[in-house]
Input
Amino acid sequence: MIIAVASGKGGTGKTTVVTNLAWLLKSEGVTLLDCDVEEPNSALFLRPKWEESNSFRQFVPEVDLEKCTYCGQCSQLCQFGAIITVKENILVFPELCHSCLGCKRICPVDAIGDGERELGTVSVGRAGAIRFVQGELRIGEAQAPPLIREVKLRGIVPARKNVVLIDSPPGTSCPVIEAVKGSDLVVLVTEPTPFGLHDLKLAVEMVRTLKLRCGLVINRSTIGDRKVWSYCQEENIPILLEIADDRRIAEVYSRGELVVEALPEYRKAFRHLYQQILTLTKRN
Ligand code: SF4
Ligand code: SF4
Output
């Protein structure tokens, strides 16, 4: 079972939900994939011991100027402007390259060799019984999706029948889509504020476009207004859990602790969340 935890905007409590859920499920054999590669912070709460950490690299064209005839076929093919032929000069912009290998394949004189650049690192470890895989994008790097793909490749072992939890990046752009696709359920985390509702609507639209199921966790449910509840009713979106605005949760979070450990009275709520997830995933 693959459960992605996502949110239309950052700071809604997505990491709180995913890390506390992982802690509760540790006896069931859970894997947590931190796919929020621009700011992976699940590890701050679960403190895994890293077993390996590898640089993740991708192809970029390396042009052999001795062979190149400046025919321009590679530049005409590249949709991303990552390789440009200007008269008797050829320029490569690695940060724009999507590593599709098209330029290498089309080159009639085999002038393009295998260069590479680092997108980030993938680390694998364990936090007690929790298997942990984390991607971390190199500072200044914009292409998160290939790194997220790699984290999922390392973390989702098809033969293993355990629970996989994905800490997805916030928002609704390509990295989020890469993180949530293939999930059995997307748990969206929101706050009942106008901004929260606005971004929730975008997130629901994204999930539905991907033909995935979703349920909602309303964090700090005692602030704001009731428009999120009305929206969920209109759109038939199940509310899986409501977490009241509790100053102690913010304090626990700021100390890098887990709510279910520091405030055991919340265990019941997170167990309830897991039951709701099970009910929803088994229903279809
Ligand atoms: S590998 Fe693809 S994206 Fe990169 S420069 Fe070549 S054609 Fe462009
Ligand atoms: S396709 Fe090959 S020969 Fe033509 S410009 Fe590109 S690298 Fe040079």
